[in-house]
Amino acid sequence: MNNESGVYFIKQPEKLFIAHRGESHDAPENTIAAIKLAWERGLKAVEVDVHLTADNEICVIHDKDTLRTTGKKLVVSKSGIEELQKLDAGSWKGKKWSGEKIPTLKEVLASVPEKGKLIIEIKSDSRILDKLKYDTRNSGLRKGQIEIIAFNLQTLARAKQMMPEYKMLWLFTSMPVLLQYLSGTNPGAVLKKLRRYNLDGVNIGNTRFFNKKFIEKLTSEGYPIYTWTVNDPDRALTLLKWGVEYVTTDKAAWMAEKIKDKI
């Protein structure tokens, strides 16, 4: 059955895909509208980005400031949540989304259905962790319904110490082999860091350097691999066949429909 955006409501294989900032191809990213659209389409996993505000609230937004998605520039870390939520975070995507606001993490957590999972990307530094711990533990969600990801390894390691019940994956981008060694993201170095900090896996930015050999070196040690952001069904199918557990995409329901008979 099609919805108004021409995308099928899905039944299978929804667990292979993470809706990147919600169903962000069709609705304004990181808004309740985009997140609820993902749940309505049958998806089981949504990824959002979080920042800490000046008044110690966690809001859901990708950038450090609000200019790109609201047309007005406020620096999130220097602004209060009340001021931030007065902005229109939907009109840039189309008139039908006018009035969508920047949500709090608590609002997003409250939207997660019984079988849903929320992947929270930390964009702030470690000062966000006390509030993140409070909001997630008081959300009413089961521990398996929340996962945490971050580029900053030290912040993620500290988060794991504070919230060991949640699955945590380290974010980085796949690079040429030489740069992998220089940046400490070659498979051997990655495995050492995962073990050292008791992390649960990795979430790797998709490039042409992200290949079967790299994936197998990590999955053979029992670590799951997620990837981002893949909007091509053929590439997604290849990565899934190589052993990637979840593919993050702007078109999650559409992607699931495209590959449902191939996986």
Protein architecture, described:
- The chain has helices at residues 32-40, 67-70, 81-84, 105-111, 129-137, 153-162, 177-183, 187-197, 212-219, 233-242, 252-259, and strands at 17-20, 45-52, 58-60, 117-122, 146-150, 167-173, 201-205, 225-228, 246-249.
- Mean pLDDT is 95; it is low at 1-6.
- The chain is of the alpha/beta class.
- It has an eight-stranded parallel barrel with strand order 1-2-4-5-6-7-8-9, surrounded by five helices.
- Helix 10 links the parallel strand 8 and strand 9.
- It is globular and about 50 Å long.
- Helix 10 packs across helix 11 (252-259).
- It is built from eleven helices and nine strands.
- It has a single domain (14-52, 107-259), classed as Alpha-Beta Barrel (TIM Barrel).
**Structural class by SSE content:** alpha/beta
In which order are the strands of the major sheet placed? 1-2-4-5-6-7-8-9
Query: Level of helix content?
Result: 25-40%
Shape: globular
- Count of DSSP E strands? 9
| Secondary-structure element pattern, one letter each | EHEEHHHEHEHEHHEHEHEH
Largest sheet: 8 strands, parallel, barrel
Count of folded domains: 1
SS element count, helices: 11
In the CATH hierarchy, the third-tier topology is known as TIM Barrel
Cα distance spanning the termini: 21 Å
